[in-house]
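Deviation from plan, reported transparently: zinc ion complex.
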Amino acid sequence: MDIVHDPDEILRKKLSPVTKFNASLRKIVDEMKKSMIAHEGVGLSANQVGLDMSLFIARPKEKFYVFVNPHVELFEETDLKEEGCLSIPGTWGITRRAKKVRITYQNLEGKKRILSTEGFLAHIIQHEYDHINGTLFTDNALELLDVPVNQEESNEKNAN
Ligand SMILES: [Zn+2]
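Because the crystal trials were delayed, the predicted structure below was used instead.
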């Protein structure tokens, strides 16, 4: 799967709910996971690979998460984060994000789940939830920085 880049219009679409929890969905998620790992990303939404499906994946460290038809609630307390996006290569920015979130979603079997989390995973979830609602981090960043590609490669930061 190739990564879709800004300004592709699918990145501006509010994505449609997933209704079928079958082998085809599992295969899509598996392919998304391979693309995310190949690009050293920490998160990836379906529209970033050209699919109109309300789902995203995340891998803050070793553990891999799949969130289908998610709804995210933000807790009040915020902090500033440095953030990048696989769909906007070479651009980094400072964003204000909630420290904690609660996400209601379905798993790959279609079962309803709720996860409360904080830190890096909470941050990835907010970035990806924006994606499935057609928002890019550059829309709300407090400051944007262009990083030359060769410098970016040697950087330990991860985009999502
Ligand atoms: Zn992104």
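The pocket of zinc ion is lined by residues 85-87, 127, 131, 160 (CB under 6 Å). We consider this an acceptable substitute for the interim report.
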